[in-house]
From TrEMBL:
<protein>
    <submittedName>
        <fullName>Nitrogen fixation protein FixH</fullName>
    </submittedName>
</protein>
<dbReference type="InterPro" id="IPR018037">
    <property type="entry name" value="FixH_proteobacterial"/>
</dbReference>
<dbReference type="Pfam" id="PF05751">
    <property type="entry name" value="FixH"/>
</dbReference>
<dbReference type="InterPro" id="IPR008620">
    <property type="entry name" value="FixH"/>
</dbReference>
Length: 148
């Protein structure tokens, strides 16, 4: 009986340990070393983005079918709509990177970019918006949103 008791306890502990490691690895990035090397470039890109003084407004709305529609409106420092940019969006789960969703945005009008995501679960998400011009990233935004 004593051997069976400890066998059950050890078996349950091993099972719970495997499940805990598989569901939440505890890392934000795959390689912290590589992320550290790109830190200076990210600071420079953020300073350049701030100097442009663009006005980028994003709105995400959850639809009745469980999907979500993302709209981004881009204006330059003078308030004029900007076209010809390539925007992309991501909905990232703060607790589980496996649930992340990419949202492709296409230009729906002058300075207005829209995209749809199918079957977005309710709850907290990080909305990440990236803008490119001539193959270079010129805009990056990360905001926490709650979808009901």
């Amino acid at each position: 009986m004593l051997v069976a008791f400890f066998g059950v306890v050890i078996g349950v502990n091993v099972t719970m340990m495997k499940l805990a490691i598989a569901t939440l690895p505890g890392t934000d990035v795959d390689s912290p070393y590589a992320a550290g090397l790109t830190y200076d470039r990210e600071i420079s890109a953020a300073q350049q983005q701030a100097a442009r003084k663009w006005q980028i407004n994003a709105h995400i709305e959850r639809r009745a079918d469980g999907g979500a529609t993302l709209q981004v409106e881009a204006r330059d420092a003078a308030g004029q709509p900007m076209s010809g940019l390539k925007f992309g969006g991501r909905l990232e789960r703060p607790t589980d990177k496996r649930a992340d969703l990419a949202v492709g945005l296409s230009e729906a009008g002058i300075g207005i970019y829209r995209g749809d995501a199918a079957s977005v679960a309710p709850g907290q998400w990080d909305l990440v918006i990236e803008g490119e011009a001539r193959g270079m990233r010129v805009f990056l935004s990360r905001n926490r949103v709650i979808l009901h």
